[in-house]
Amino acid sequence: MxxxxxxxxxDEPERAGDSWEAVRSEVSQCRRCGLCDSRRxxxxxxxxPQARWMLVGEAPGADEDAQGEPFVGMAxxxxxxxxxxxxxxxxxxxxxxxxxxxxxPGNRNxxxxxxxxxxxxxxxxxxxxxxxxILLLGRFAVQxxxxxxxxxxxxxxxxxxxxxxxRAIPVVCTYHPAYLLRNLPDKxxxxxxxxxxxxxxxxxxxxxxxxxxxxx
Length: 216
Hints:
The protein is α/β, with parallel strands linked by helices. It is built from 8 helices and 6 strands, in the order αββααβαβααββαα. It has helices at 20-29, 62-67, 73-85, 112-129, 139-146, 152-155, 177-182, 187-215, and strands at 46-47, 53-57, 94-98, 133-137, 160-164, 167-174. A 6-stranded mixed beta sheet has the order 1-3-2-4-6-5. The longest helix has 29 residues, at 187-215.
């Protein structure tokens, strides 16, 4: 990425502060790419700021753009069912967001500037949440967060890592719920990915508790 003479990055959102409220405010007022001209609402994310799981999708669709919330409509209902199957609640156990905070017109693929700008917001959300696990939903989320051109199929059923504050956060990749609605046989594969994510998160939580006990 290019830098300004003062060392700043023109694609990085200006930082007014490192808090949920500050980042939410920046997202709601963001005009750093052309998506601000066509959006109805920004979609910051939803869930508890103390959640131990972070779910990252691709971009808001028409329903999300209208309501300002992530994963609503049929894909959102399927995601809720998937979470319930492993006894997780959208309200208390996970924080759900997207790489893009504004809907691309016609649900087209994001442009490079759009992806870079919104990825910066996502990285700050990860830094703030410090989850035990990041679950990436769909090709664009996988490729953006892991900085790869590899397919979801080639990356699933393996544990990857995201470096944040001197800590490597485990990352599991799976298919987007909207994809699963069109490809029902792959629901079994996503169930396998959820089971892997559950095991990895449990290991992280146990290690965190052990570390807290040692510190005490």
